[in-house]
Amino acid sequence: MNDHENENAAKRECRRNIIMSGLVSFFTDIAGYMIVPVLPLFLVGALGASTMLVGLIEGIAETTASLLKIFSGWFSDKVGKRKPLMLIGYSLSNIIRPLFGLSTGWGQVLAIKFADKVGKGLRTAPRDALLADSATEGGMGKAFGLHRTFDELGSAIGPLLAFWILSFFAGDYRQVFYWTAIPGALAILLIIVGIRDKAPKHKEESKTIKLGFKGMGHEFILFSMIATIFAIGNSSDAFLILRAKDVGLATALVPLAYFAFNITFSILSYPMGALSDKLGRRPLLIGGFFIFGLVYLGFAFASRTWHIWLLFIAYGIYSAATDGIQRAYIADLIPAGKRGMGMGTFNALVGLAALPASILAGYLWKIKGPVATFGFGSLMAFLACFLLIILSRKVQAPQDLIKS
After folding, report:
1. Angle at the Cα of 236 (from 60 to 126), degrees rounded to 5?
2. In total, how many domains does the chain have?
3. What is the pLDDT of residues 54-96, one digit of tens each?
4. Between the CA of residue 201 and those of 32, 121, 132, 164, 259, what are the distances in Å?
5. Which CATH number does the domain housing residue 354 bear?
6. CB of 271 closer than 8 Å to CB of 148
7. What pTM value is reported for the model?
């Protein structure tokens, strides 16, 4: 095989990794998002949990995932392999989720949610590093955008299936949990047969796990701090779901509202990613943070069920403008051989904010109501947006400098 054929084979393998990673996320998110719009209602309605307890459970789970992202990213850099941790992480989450159906108390829900997020913590940084390693030059935004399209398409189908199951089984939440086993098994199978490891150009030689700022550059550090400020106000989506129910949306329709969010997210993710390759990541991130602030203000003062539908669609626009693009932006800022560690560090910092964010959201809701919860989130979003604007030159990625 000549050099040209070798190069073409390598490109095909990279495209395969991107597509297969997307399909794995597609089936995993079908399973995961069958649960997302149902679990808060199950906790509050069936198990009698308070909003503060919902916030605590969500916050602990996300914080666990965040801490593990540091380890998994560092380890995948060190050994030069992404697939093993991806397989372990996806398998754990997809195997454990059906057990929600057997829960009789909030403590069991917390334990299962904890295990689910351990799986997420193990897989996320290696997967994002594999995507970055597999992306073509100038195509980082497209690679992450395509992945988010697959991911969010699954996230859209999940609530739709939950709606059908709740309708067919007369609102039996537990049936939703049991049926997650099917897409979960397909996701595990696809990792085994579809993903091919692509070693980073340079292995991480460090023998100890560090936070990962060394050698990352001040742009990475500053942007991570801004994103963390934003995350402090970005509480769990469980509060959006509780707010929808609070405004008067019927229980069976809550998954459909979440479907509207996810399908918007899915449709716009790839074009937003491609646009970021042309215009730069930062303008879209600024716009996304601003939209989030407006959306949270909307949730604070929503009084009609049609408000909820529009707000979930707008929330999908925000997500498409930030989620995959933020990951691509971090990949732009990090040296290739440290992408696993860098992705893990960034995700950990942002994710660690999930615990105080969700606990604070639950506390504010309890003492002052949803206006306080969503008003605070909106304030943090506008602050992050303002900082990203005034510190624009200090958080420029090389890719953005080319566009400016």
Report:
1. 65
2. 1
3. 767 767 777 777 777 777 877 877 777 888 899 999 999 999 9
4. 33, 24, 11, 47, 39
5. 1.20.1250.20
6. no
7. 0.69
